[in-house]
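Hi V.,

Quick status before I head out on leave. The structure for the redesign project is tokenized and pasted below; the design run finished overnight.
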């Protein structure tokens, strides 16, 4: 169905593929046959996605969050994709805004700036002032984008279904990526979801024992004006963090302020990742703002990730294993994260991690790039056919963006100094929970229950033993063979002793023989011993166990 509905788009895609020189597609379309599909080079893939338009740029951005599926070269190239496009004319945007508002635009806003302050593939943002004087940001969906997205999604899903039948498609989980991308893109078309994410992040970061919540800002959502195609939120006046001019005019030492902001960001994101389990998954330089009053703001909650408590605990231990360069522990934790129970050669996984971590042995902790190490851990897992949850890609991408922005903003960053006190506190929380007293009481109740139940359990066990109702079923492989071998050895030993006894008896009788009868008996004993000895030798030779 999708092939007939999107013929013009298919023709356009083929033209883009040929124009960018993807060798596989050129052979397929000109010769009529080709080997298994191969990804184009990272640079060519990026150019193809840019030429195909905003929806495919979004696809590339999603793929850049999957270092468990793609190599580092692809991740680095796709991470540079930006969906900045020319803004839609105000006349078209105004139509969308008026349709979404319950009251006339003139009654709702005192002023609206017709010039967009930012434009992306899905929406663009305008500054406005409410009738009561509060400044707000209007995020408006581009007119007709829902139709374009639906067409491209149908085409992508159709192509994914075809490619999924090949070994290439199964190896790279093409269908899984397409489904994940479809859900993410459809979610971006509903601004009420992003507004809900923004509110949840704002609530989570309003309290913390690691940092001062008043220094971190998440925009307030105006729900009475927000719809699936229009999001109205608090206007935050500032500049991207890396463009901030910290010259000391505010009375703060620039170096100290940079260090304080770096610490604030690390603690805020570690709380999101390892405590809240709900995190802003796109902290690139454009989404971290330095406000004019010296606070830091998190913008654009369109991409978020979630981690369950078990995964949080495993990832916390993984950070410690990385610090210790413990390949064996890294392998064990990776298997605990794995989605499937597919057999894995443990020694090979440990050896791969050991080779990967070995290059960091003589490097100081301050020089280590931890997000790069996590990327490499995911790459090793991929090479060993270990399938990890998709949120691991978002987790790694978030840490990589955070560390990259932090190092760009503060070149003196020491990653270990920033995370060490947080790791200590995280392990303490895992041991005792948020309330040590409650954890202690719960442990005491468990011990009391165990102490009350243990005598009864022991009594039941003794009753079963004495009443002969307890049965032990032990199966040891190879035991029958061992039993037969032992029996054979015992039999031969018995025959040997018998033969020796007959010979000794015959010798004693022969030395004391006074009559013909005793001499005859001695000869009979010698003959019997000789026959038995000969038979024993022959049986040993036949068994092949003379050695």
């Amino acid at each position: 169905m999708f092939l007939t509905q999107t013929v013009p788009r298919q023709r356009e895609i083929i033209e883009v593929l040929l124009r960018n020189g993807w060798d596989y597609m050129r052979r397929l379309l000109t010769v009529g046959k080709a080997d298994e599909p191969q990804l184009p080079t990272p640079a060519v893939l990026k150019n193809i996605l840019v030429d195909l338009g905003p929806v495919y740029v979004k696809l590339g951005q999603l793929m850049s969050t999957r270092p468990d599926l793609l190599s580092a070269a692809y991740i680095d190239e796709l991470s540079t994709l930006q969906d900045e496009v020319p803004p839609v004319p105000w006349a078209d945007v105004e139509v969308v805004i008026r349709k979404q508002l319950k009251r006339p635009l003139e009654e709702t806003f005192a002023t609206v700036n017709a010039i967009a302050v930012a434009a992306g593939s899905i929406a663009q943002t305008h500054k406005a002032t409410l009738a009561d004087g509060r400044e707000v940001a209007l995020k408006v969906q581009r007119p007709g984008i829902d139709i374009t997205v639906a067409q491209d999604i149908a085409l992508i899903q159709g192509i994914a279904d075809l490619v999924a039948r090949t070994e290439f498609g199964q190896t790279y989980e093409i269908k899984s990526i397409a489904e994940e991308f479809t859900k993410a893109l459809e979610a971006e078309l509903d601004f009420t979801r992003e507004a809900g994410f923004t509110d949840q992040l704002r609530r989570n970061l309003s309290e913390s024992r690691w940092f001062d919540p008043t220094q971190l800002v998440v925009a307030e959502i105006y729900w009475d004006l927000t719809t699936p195609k229009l999001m109205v939120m608090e206007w935050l006046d500032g500049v991207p963090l890396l463009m901030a001019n910290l010259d000391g005019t505010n009375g703060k030492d620039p170096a100290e302020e940079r260090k304080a902001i770096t610490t604030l960001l690390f603690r805020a994101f570690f709380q999101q990742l390892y405590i809240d389990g709900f995190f802003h998954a796109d902290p690139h330089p454009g989404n971290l703002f330095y406000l004019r009053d010296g606070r830091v703001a998190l913008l654009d909650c369109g991409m978020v990730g979630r981690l369950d408590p078990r995964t949080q605990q495993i990832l916390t231990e993984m950070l410690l294993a990385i610090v210790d360069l413990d390949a064996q522990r890294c392998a064990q934790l990776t298997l605990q994260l794995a989605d499937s129970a597919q057999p894995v050669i443990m020694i090979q996984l440990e050896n791969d991690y050991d080779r990967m971590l070995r290059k960091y042995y003589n490097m100081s902790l301050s020089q280590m790039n931890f997000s790069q190490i996590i990327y490499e851990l995911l790459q090793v897992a991929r090479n060993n056919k270990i399938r990890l949850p998709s949120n691991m890609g978002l987790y790694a991408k978030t840490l990589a963006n955070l560390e990259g922005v932090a190092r760009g903003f503060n070149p003196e960053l020491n990653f270990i100094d920033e995370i060490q006190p947080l790791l200590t506190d995280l392990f303490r929380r895992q041991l005792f929970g948020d309330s040590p007293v409650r954890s202690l009481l719960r442990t005491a109740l468990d011990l009391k229950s165990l102490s009350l139940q243990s005598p009864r359990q022991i009594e039941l066990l003794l009753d079963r033993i004495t009443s002969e109702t307890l049965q032990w079923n032990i199966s040891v492989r190879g035991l029958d063979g061992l039993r037969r071998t032992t029996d054979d050895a015992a039999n031969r030993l018995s025959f040997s002793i018998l033969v020796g006894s007959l010979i000794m008896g015959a010798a004693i009788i022969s030395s004391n023989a006074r009559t013909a009868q005793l001499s005859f008996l001695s000869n009979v004993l010698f003959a019997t011993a000789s026959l038995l000895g000969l038979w024993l030798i022959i049986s040993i030779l036949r068994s092949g166990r003379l050695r």
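Above is the designed sequence. The radius of gyration is 38 Å.

G. will cover questions while I'm gone.

Best,
W.
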